[in-house]
Design brief:
Layout lengths: L7 H15 L3 H43 L2 H19 L5 H21 L2 E4 L11 E7 L8 E6 L1 E4 L2 E4 L1 E6 L3
Parallel strand pairs: 2-6
Antiparallel strand pairs: 1-4, 3-6, 4-5
Length: 174
């Protein structure tokens, strides 16, 4: 039988030393966990700050959009105002020249309305729609009941949303 020159206690010490070198100490593990915890906290704080910045920028953008939403419309309306002022500035105007100037200005205004999808609600002959029409009177008529027979004031819609309902008279039930 051969005897081993190495002492079992020496082998155990060597194995323990190798394991100790491979296995980090509790202090090292704690420091690593704290470092990772700080990294995650920093990333969370960065994300939180970025979210606040995005929210603040969105609020500013909405505010600017509301403030300047009518800018294009306003610029188009300036031309209509200029036409009205030019018509009033004429010193030797006749009724016919005023009338033709008003017709041109009305065409200019209608063009602006068309550009911005503002449409007239002129419902003569249609059935009363309380979403688009406001009945102000009922009159005797040959038309079926609740049919619009007259328009006192035209209504207007912006992109199919009613800005002002048409004021109408409707036929009475017989």
């Amino acid at each position: 039988m051969e005897q081993n020159d190495t002492n079992p206690s020496t082998e155990q010490q060597a194995a323990a030393t190798n394991t100790a070198e491979i296995m980090p100490s509790l202090e090292e593990m704690l420091k690593e966990a704290e470092r990772k915890g700080q990294e995650h906290y920093d990333a969370w704080m960065y994300a939180k700050a970025e979210g606040e910045n995005i929210r603040r920028r969105a609020i500013e953008d909405v505010s600017k959009a509301q403030k300047f939403a009518v800018e294009r419309f306003s610029n188009e309306m300036l031309a209509v105002k200029d036409s009205l002022e030019a018509g009033l500035a004429v010193e030797t105007a006749t009724v016919e020249s005023f009338k033709s100037g008003m017709e041109l200005t009305l065409k200019q205004l209608a063009s602006v309305f068309e550009k911005f999808n503002i449409s007239e609600i002129n419902p003569v002959g249609e059935k009363l729609d309380p979403h688009k029409h406001q009945a102000i009177a009922m009159v005797d008529s040959d038309q079926p009941a609740n049919t619009v027979v007259g328009v006192m004031q035209k209504g207007y819609a912006l992109n199919d949303r009613v800005l002002r309902p048409a004021m109408v008279t409707v036929a009475k039930a017989k």
